[in-house]
Amino acid sequence: MKKHVVGIDIGGTKLATVVADTAGNILNKVRKPTLAERGPEYARQLLFDMVHETIELAGLERTAISAIGVSCGGPLDTKTGIVYSPPNLPGWDALPLKSQLESEFEIPVTIENDANASALAEYRFGGGRGYNAVLYMTMSTGIGGGIVLDGQVYHGANDSAGEVGHQILLPDGPLCGCGKRGCLEALCSGPAIARRAQAAVRNEKASATTLLDLAGGHIESVRSEHVLEAARQGDALALRLVEETAYYMGWGIANLVNILNPDIVLLGTIAIAAGDLLLNPIRKTVSEFAMTRPAEAVKIAPAQLGEALGDLAAVALVV
Amino acid sequence: MKKHVVGIDIGGTKLATVVADTAGNILNKVRKPTLAERGPEYARQLLFDMVHETIELAGLERTAISAIGVSCGGPLDTKTGIVYSPPNLPGWDALPLKSQLESEFEIPVTIENDANASALAEYRFGGGRGYNAVLYMTMSTGIGGGIVLDGQVYHGANDSAGEVGHQILLPDGPLCGCGKRGCLEALCSGPAIARRAQAAVRNEKASATTLLDLAGGHIESVRSEHVLEAARQGDALALRLVEETAYYMGWGIANLVNILNPDIVLLGTIAIAAGDLLLNPIRKTVSEFAMTRPAEAVKIAPAQLGEALGDLAAVALVV
Predict the structure, then answer these.
(1) Per-residue pLDDT in tens (0 to 9) along chain A, 319 residues
(2) SS3 string of B250-269?
(3) From the CA of A260, how many Å to the nearest CA of chain B?
(4) Do A158 and B260 touch (CB under 8 A)?
């Protein structure tokens, strides 16, 4: 029996390939910048080289690899393995990545969007272990989501399920990257928190000294990290921004709790960095806004895999 | 092989028992008022008598029945078969209905909340046939929902999934029966449409003659049926109320489309009565508010089973 797999994590800024054993232990890793501006042909060739290199570094033959898992920004079709114009990968239009990889390596390939793959990794190796209904939500440059039910990624009709960041809360709210207004993502992603913070600093300069100091004195440099840092120092304006973020996140999660009745909601990136400072007011809003029974059933916790998530996301698809 | 099943439909105003064959053909039916005010012991004894009577009417022995399906207002626990205080069944507190029925009839019993059972019936016999991801939404005195994935009711962590009517759209909006504000149900259920219509008539008496006439001249008698009827006659105020209803429904459904990526959303009761008058503006709002890929994948259609839904809901659980 073949005991090793390859994982490929494709991001807008970096590519990573790993070899892992079937228990999910990463044996080695190759990491290179994507240089997305050079287009898909460059990235494809680079990926091929990296996969060959990773297998070689592991001291294995290609024939010892049972499967390749690919975690990539969507939209993409998991059945055909075609990638459709991810926002962070310009030029990847209808790219048949699965068949290209299978031709090159003669190894079966499973491809999944990164949020779904991350959700599966948390289910297999992280905070979702042992739960039947797991909702994972990123909270970084965007708000993505993945739903794992009974150990399987839930894909929906055309691999678009789990777009939890694009539920609309305020139809007249701030513009979202998706073109609509007032999506959860437009209120609570890292850049959205920064935008709200910058507006608050502009409007309330007198109470914004801590935030401004942390951002080197430049309003336009205020980021979500500064908001968390200032809130930890007890800064009133920053604490209000955190409360506001928790209110919108809690509202959105309450809706998801009513609809999906998950056992656990795992929140990534910003929520991990913020910890209970953000999670506690989120939990409070969820318990106020969701129905009693599903609210009692759900745990809201930080995702657990941290830095290892990207690699394990790809690996989780094939172990 | 046993070729017949019993279905029990428990509502706040009526009880119905049917015998059906395993293809879902109803052979006969007994129907009685629930008289909910007499409490669960009365209803339980009445149900037992009705089941015996239905089986006898079908000319069958009890031993010829393979299973009993029960569709009942929730919350309830599908594993233990215990019913927990449905709003329309006062006194049904922790009622062990499944075990009571199994003791009496020595036939396996499956119990499910009515929205989930209805969703399954639409999947088996109605508008959801052939689809992998089916979302059914009632639109009557409340807005309930059921999710059927790959032919199975999706229950979530504790049988609370599919509370789609309690996603909150307007946290400062009208009070909902659940105690929160601005749930989809508080905006678009029959009583909610009536409330909005009555307020509009009160505020705009001059343009409300059609609605008032249909309601016999009494503002407090205006109901959702009158709104639909007046809209069909081209009445401007009623058309605005329908548009408003479609806007909130479309917004809520768009969120569900982004999260669940269903193949089809089937809308019951009011949506069936209204048809394209309501469904077309709902479809328009969904296509504006949902992400392109899931919006392209989803059909939004009236539920198909109409009057037969309650009986088939119970039967669908066991065929």
Answers:
(1) 788 999 999 998 899 999 999 999 999 999 999 998 998 999 999 999 999 999 999 999 999 999 999 999 989 999 999 999 888 888 999 999 999 999 999 999 999 999 999 999 999 999 999 999 999 999 999 999 999 999 999 999 999 999 999 999 999 999 999 999 999 999 999 999 999 999 999 999 888 899 999 999 999 999 999 999 999 999 999 999 999 999 999 999 999 999 999 999 999 999 999 999 999 999 999 999 999 999 999 999 999 998 899 999 999 999 9
(2) HHHHHHHHHHHCCCEEEECC
(3) 5
(4) no
Q: CA of A261 to nearest chain B CA: how many angstroms apart?
A: 5
Question: pLDDT for B258-276, tens place per residue?
Answer: 999 999 999 999 999 999 9
Predicted TM-score (pTM) of the model is 0.96
Do A155 and B254 count as a contact with CB atoms less than 8 A apart?
no
Q: How far apart are CA B243 and CA B196, in angstroms?
A: 12
Hey, what are B231's tokens?
């809209």
C-alpha B263/C-alpha B136 separation (Å) is 11
Q: Tell whether B231 and B157 lie within a shared domain.
A: yes
Same domain, A146 and A238: yes
**Angle, alpha carbons A258-A263-A267 (nearest 5°):** 85
- List Cα–Cα distances, B241 to B7, B170, B205, B229, B273, in angstroms: 38, 17, 15, 12, 15
Same domain, B290 and B148: yes
Q: What is the pLDDT of residues B178-196, one digit of tens each?
A: 999 999 999 999 999 999 9
C-alpha distance from B21 to closest chain A C-alpha (Å): 32
B294/A158 touch (CB, cutoff 8 Å), yes or no: yes
User: Quick one: closest CA in B to A155, which residue?
Assistant: B261
B75 prior amide bond cis, ω within 30: yes
Task: Provide ipTM, 2 decimals.
Answer: 0.95
Report the CATH number at residue B202. 3.30.420.40
CA distance B97 to chain A (A): 20
Considering only the beta carbons, identify the residue of B155, B254, B293 that sits closest to A158.
B293
Cβ-based contacts under 8 A for chains A and B: 127
**d(Cα A200, Cα B82) in Å, to the nearest integer?**
51
Domain range for residue A140? 127-303
Cβ contact B166–A291 (<8 Å): yes
The answer on B154 and B102 residing in a single domain is: no
Residues B63 and B188 in one domain: no
Q: Per the CB < 8 Å rule, is A163 touching B259?
A: yes
